[in-house]
Amino acid sequence: MSAGKIDPMEQFKVEPVLGRHLDLFGYDVSFTNSALFMIVVFVLLAVFMAGGLKRQLVPGRWQVAAEDAVSFIDNMVTVNIGSGGKKFAPYIFSLFFFILFANLIGVLPLAILPGLHTFAVTSHITVTAVLAFLSFGIVLVVGFATHGLKFFSLFVPHGAPAWLMPVIIPVEFVSFMVRPFSLGLRLFVAMTAGHILLEVFGSFVVQGLNAGGALGPVVSVLSFVMIVGVSALELLVCAIQAYVFALLTSLYLHDAVHLH
Amino acid sequence: MDHTSAMYIGAGLAAIGVGLAALGVGNVFGSFLEGALRNPGAADGQQGRLFIGFAASELLGLIAFVVAILILFVVK
């Protein structure tokens, strides 16, 4: 990156909020902006649910919103996991809404206020990979707890001829082991790519205004229109990625509960 | 060709995969719409499968993007 350009990767920097690094046994345990925004997501989610749990006979708008959120997840779980899926609904619910809120807070354009820079928690693979491995761990625990060693029959598809087994079993095994990586990577890359795109067009606006001349403002205006469009697309991507994460987790849980 | 230009060319080549994944994603939604218009009653029940197909084809494009980013920012 040469001087004068705006580095699109700078927005993903994890920094201590108070500007101080705390050291514990050689590890950096300072309170970072990532941790801060995870807490913000948690508080918003808790407030949203607490406000909807009034259990009035004639529900208000807030209660309807909370009930719709719960029944949306409930429906996803019953359709995709099938019988015995209800007990995973709280986990899928937490997963979906944590990711959704984190994604949406990440694209809030609050950075126009000086000093306030919203941080997309899900644009870091450390966060998404922990969520993905949590899902994968639950699949393993549930699978081995309900089926014991029969869980390995997951790698043997129904109706496949016996001579194909030496090929199919390794392929199925690899595709099973790749699941947590693809799950975490998808969310992380989709969010990172969107934020880089917004930052690049944002830097075009600034550079166009600085360049002056006849063409500079034209580039700025076109880039700004592009930012508006890409932001709308980003809102869609935020929702889709949260949905896909929850959907794939519930499908993997279906495998663990029912073995194909 | 010096190292830096080779890096940028490589990143550009890696980004071709993103466009190819766009074809795949478009194919998934296009085929879904084609089927859904023939039988709108069955469309809602297949939305889960639609997003599984979307996720699978989108992932490959995202991996191409990761490769481009790795070449640009990680490879020295």
Secondary-structure map:
The complex is a heterodimer of chains A (260) and B (76).
Chain A: E1 23-24, E2 27-28, H1 33-52, H2 61-81, H3 89-106, H4 125-147, H5 165-211, H6 215-258
Antiparallel strand pairs in A: 1-2
Chain B: H1 3-14, H2 16-38, H3 40-43, H4 47-74
InterPro entries (chain B): ATP_synth_F0_csu, ATP_synth_F0_csu_sf, ATPase_proteolipid_c-like_dom, F/V-ATP_Csub_sf
Keywords (chain B): ATP synthesis, Cell membrane, CF(0), Hydrogen ion transport, Ion transport, Lipid-binding, Membrane, Transmembrane, Transmembrane helix, Transport
Membrane topology (chain B): Multi-pass membrane protein
Could you write a compact summary of the structure shown?
The complex is a heterodimer of chains A (260) and B (76). Chain A has 260 residues and is mainly alpha-helical.
Structural commentary:
The complex is a heterodimer of chains A (260) and B (76). With 260 residues, chain A is mainly alpha-helical. Chain A contains six helices and two strands. In chain A, strands 1-2 form a two-stranded antiparallel sheet. Chain B has 76 residues and is an all-alpha fold. The mean pLDDT of chain B is 89. The A-B interface holds A 9, 76, 79-80, 182, 185-186, 189-190, 192-193, 240, 243-244, 247-248, 251 and B 48, 51-52, 54-55, 58-59, 62-63, 65-66, 69, 73.
- Parts with pLDDT < 50 across at least 5 consecutive residues of chain A: none
**Shape type of chain A:** globular
Q: In CATH, what is the class of chain B?
A: Mainly Alpha
The overall number of domains of chain B is 1
- The separation of the N and C termini of chain B measures 16 Å
| Regions with little confidence, pLDDT below 50 for 5+ residues of chain B | none
Give me the strand/helix succession of chain B: HHHH
Order of helices and strands of chain A: EEHHHHHH
